[in-house]
Amino acid sequence: MGKLSPAAEAQIKEICARHKDERTPLMMILSDIQNEYGYIPLDVQELVSAETGISVAEIYGVVTFYSFFSLTPKGKYVIGCCLGTACYVKGAQNVIDKFSELLKIAPGETSEDGLFTLDALRCIGACGIAPAVSINGKVFPKVEVGQVQKIIDDYKAEAGA
To answer: Exposure string (b/e) for 129-161, b if CB count within 10 Å is 16 or more?
Structure first.
């Protein structure tokens, strides 16, 4: 986000005000900000701290503890490769390694073009279709290394890239 625009600052203040009467407002505030902007950088955490009186250290602790919050922008397509036991045993590590190789990013990173973020996930509850990959909520069953390039190409075509 860099320096917050006046509009973004006003919107974040409004989000904080909307939840001020809740007993524990932080999760709701952070969730609304994450949904609106896709990530919660330090300058936003500092503004939330100023608005709520909650320390930046506590806010940062929450943002970094929960995997659905992010400190950096996510790509248009978030690829989640399940590395739970069933998926791992069926070759999920090879699948995530192939995504990583082709996209030239490590898990937790976003591609230079901003299209893809690669995440290593723990069990997503799709053990029967292992190894499973999810992209923006769509689950791909029994993914094999040989399918990875086509999956990437299909999403690039959808994005017009």
So the answer is: bbbbbbbeeeebeebeeeebeebbeebeeeeee
